[in-house]
Amino acid sequence: MPLTIGGLWRYPVKTLAGERLTEADLTPDGIPGDRLVHVRGPEGVRTSRRHHRLLGLQGTLSAEGLPLVNGHPWDSPDALALVRGAAGQDAWLAADDSLDRFDILPLLVATDGAVHEFGRDIRRLRPNVLIDGVHGMDETTWEGAGLVSGDAVIFLDSLRGRCPMTTVDPDTLDRDPGVLKDIGRRFGGRLALNASVLRAGRVHLGDPVELKRA
């Protein structure tokens, strides 16, 4: 089965739910508009690993490129109130356009075969790019390979070690610790691939993809 772009996502506010895209520019800084704002507390960055109700808020990008929280400008009192309701009254939002805003690398690439084996909503894995047409767990052999789609070239660096965010149902926000245990038991704790962009380009849903092994 040929490989294609099966899904694209952006997360304008880190650790909040993100937004699906039909096309995206892939750049050395990832997808423009991704993770431009994060949640902080006195101890540092706060994420849904400990404050899982942040996943009940949605980060999107306005037509002008402004990150929004449930439709409110990220730096507005309404957005702050929503974030504090999920992460504590001492939380706040901060902008960050440095590469340090990514946990590991600017992109996370998932494959439909692995998502099928995982057997749960793909949103638990928080990918930027989904590749369709992958057999089973073939992604485990892709470390060090490249993906070419149009002008864009993606380097697949390493499999991603998963965290407690995968235990949260994206619709109900119920937590199931068994999900992370299952990932450890069946997949060695790793699903999807940390990736970077070697050559920039625009991709669209359905675009063909070629796997280039090292």
Helix/strand layout:
Elements: E1 3-10, E2 19-21, E3 23-26, E4 37-41, E5 44-46, E6 59-61, E7 67-69, E8 72-73, H1 77-87, E9 92-95, E10 107-111, H2 112-118, E11 129-132, E12 146-149, E13 152-161, H3 178-187, E14 190-199, E15 201-204, E16 208-212
Parallel strand pairs: 10-11
Antiparallel strand pairs: 1-2, 1-11, 1-16, 3-15, 4-5, 4-9, 6-7, 7-8, 10-14, 12-13, 12-16, 13-14
The largest β sheet comes out as:
7 strands, mixed, barrel
Structural class: mainly beta
- Which architecture of the largest domain does the CATH hierarchy give at level 2? Beta Barrel
Going by CATH, what is the homologous superfamily of the largest domain?
PK beta-barrel domain-like
Shape: globular
Distance between the termini: 21 Å
The tally of structural domains comes to 2
The count of strands amounts to 16
Taking all Cα atoms into account, the compactness measure Rg is: 17 Å
Helix content: 10-25%
User: How confident is the prediction overall: mean pLDDT?
Assistant: 97
Strand order of the largest sheet: 1-11-10-14-13-12-16
CATH topology of the largest domain: M1 Pyruvate Kinase, Domain 3
| CATH hierarchy class name of the largest domain | Mainly Beta
- The poorly predicted ranges are none
Strand content: 35-45%
Describe the protein's architecture and organization.
- It is a single chain.
- A seven-stranded mixed β-barrel has the order 1-11-10-14-13-12-16.
- It has 214 residues and is mainly beta.
- The radius of gyration is 17 Å and the shape is globular.
- Helices cover 13% and strands 36% of the residues.
- It folds into two domains: 3-30 and 102-212, M1 Pyruvate Kinase, Domain 3; 37-100, no CATH class.
- The chain has helices at 77-87, 112-118, 178-187, and strands at residues 3-10, 19-21, 23-26, 37-41, 44-46, 59-61, 67-69, 72-73, 92-95, 107-111, 129-132, 146-149, 152-161, 190-199, 201-204, 208-212.
- The two termini are 21 Å apart.
- It is built from three helices and 16 strands.
